[in-house]
Amino acid sequence: MDQAADGYLWVAGNNGLYKFDGQQFHAYYSILKDTTGLRENKINTLVAAKDGRVWIATPKGLHVLVGETISYVELTPNASDVQNHIIELFEDSKGNIWVGSYNGLFVIEVNNDKIVNFNLNNDKLLSEKPIWGVSEDKSGRIWVARSRNPPL
User: pLDDT of the chain along its 152 residues, tens only?
Assistant: First the structure.
């Protein structure tokens, strides 16, 4: 659950994405065979970003809501189901979106929407390791919690 700058409360559900406007819930669901919008109704987590976008993590990939339109965000071309399974989202103090998956770590740079794949930059540290948490300390350092290894 996260609250957007415009006051809406966004809720990640096991059967869809929900926006609460203070009086009622509005549901967003996946559509069968739609490959451009929301691909999965199970929402693992979400981030209502400072720039107004809502980032959505699902077992079938990363999605972003802009206005009323949800789009699929391709992190890795031809990714497998395991590579697409997003389990963590975090917005840092600069507005960058950190994405943790069962297959590693990505960051989406807010100033140009460039996707950085840390799995390619340092495969010994992050490749094929689930990323369970991302956080930032007061000095602006990013901390990453991963499976079966100490934090970075």
Answer: 999 999 999 999 999 999 999 999 999 999 888 878 899 999 999 999 999 999 999 999 999 999 999 999 999 888 877 778 999 999 999 999 999 998 889 999 999 999 998 875 555 555 567 889 999 999 999 998 887 655 54
Q: Which residues contact 94 (CB under 8 A, 6 or more apart)?
A: 110
Q: How far apart are CA 63 and CA 70, in angstroms?
A: 7
The length of the chain, given as a count of residues = 152
Rounded Cα distance, 137 and 152, in Å: 13
Residues in CB range of 83: below 8 A, 6 or more apart: 75, 76, 101, 102, 103
